[in-house]
Amino acid sequence: MIDVLVIGGGNAALCAALSASENGAKKILLLESAPKKERGGNSIHTRNIRVMHDAPMGQLTDAYSEDEFFEDLLKVTAGKTNEALARQVICESSTCPPWMQRHGVRFQASLGGTLHLSRTNNFFLGGGKALVNAYYRSLESLGIEVRYDSSVCEIEIEHGRVHAVCVQSSQGLKERIVAKAVVVASGGFESNREWLRDAWGPAADQFLIRGCRFNMGVLLRDLIAKGAQSIGDPTQGHCVAIDARSPPYDGGIVTRIDCVSLGIVVNKYAQRFYDEGEDFWPKRYAIWGRLVAQQPDQIAYSIIDAKAQGRFMPPVFPGETAQDIGTLATRLGLNPQALTATVEAYNQAVVPGKFDHAVLDNCHTQSITPAKTHWAQRLDTPPYTAYPLRPGITFTYLGVRVNERSQVLFDDFSPNLFAAGEIMAGNVLGQGYVAGVGMTIGTVFGRIAGEQAARTALLV
Ligand SMILES: Cc1cc2nc3c(=O)[nH]c(=O)nc-3n(C[C@H](O)[C@H](O)[C@H](O)COP(=O)(O)OP(=O)(O)OC[C@H]3O[C@@H](n4cnc5c(N)ncnc54)[C@H](O)[C@@H]3O)c2cc1C
Question: How far, in Å, from the CA of 57 to the mean position of ligand 1?
């Protein structure tokens, strides 16, 4: 019989399988929906993990205390977080980097032009793909069995105790596998368009999925239907504005448009609709997906002039450019008179100040709605460049409720079902996002889930 069966093939699942092995489990099986070449879920797209530290640590500068990390989380979630679990994640995050290194992950200095995270976030050398590959290599060296193309369609549960899982291959072959303990780390439901539509309405048809196509929420739905307590709201998730020309799945990080605060953003009627300079981009990038989703046809355009060039990470697709705003509008399919009028009104409203993108500067507008409160400069230097924007869904927050041992809660906690990663991230992230915390939650709770599952299996 399998000691510990792990469902999923991303960061949380891999950490759980490694930790189960470290804690004495002998027969460990990891089931990944994806074929081998697409393994790793959303984790392959990641670049960094947020880590608490009391003094400079490796590539991390200065200190980032438990309280500061918790304050950051509290701000973005507006209090929608389980404080005990959140502090557990934060405190244990400091032990993650050495553990990750032991399993082959390497770190590098924070990338210039990203979200200014050198103090708080550890960057993976080679990105998430290299991290995932390192963990799979470590699994192999520990003799942990991995099966690709293996989607778990159902978990057999009685009174919160798991007996077996039903797994299906892409050829439709079904198999029942009995295990002493199970870790479910199968992501959220962000790849499931029907479920997104149920949550968001028809706007969801225009969403682009930034990550993998395998996180369909099959087991999230199965567990909730079988009495697991749910946490979070299906409309909450991480949603950023990305290039409208991105592929429907797996566009990854390079499709994000990071020049919003350097120019203006208009909708399909060439109207501005939100303060582009409300706060530093790292604190605002995750609201723009929702803002675009609320616009007609869920489309918007980020417009800059030549002064902005070189001040942001260039996205993968080149922008549309023109020497004048009217021509730019025509190229975008917008009404040229309307866009020209919007830019003129904005330019007139700009109160010149001392431009400094590194601080909340005094360049702002007056007598215009919406205002632009920082980094407002006239759009007056050709060529003008525009990027079309769509909502890009990163991951969803609806999940199963867990306790500090990562046991899934039914009427009581399950004795042998544990959850880690996106499927339980809603316990810590009720709304909002602070960069890098997805990997923190998955690594910390993956390790806890693996350890607890191993202990449970050894007792049986
Ligand atoms: C473009 C992008 C960039 C990101 N950047 C960062 C970052 O820099 N830092 C950060 O902290 N977070 C980042 N995130 C969020 C991060 O990806 C997630 O928080 C994290 O990867 C979640 O890990 P996970 O293991 O729970 O899910 P995943 O990595 O998505 O893994 C889920 C796995 O479950 C498998 N699966 C699904 N259903 C089944 C089933 N029924 N049976 C078997 N297997 C199944 C999937 O194939 C997949 O392998 C980013 C996300 C995206 C999309």
Answer: 26
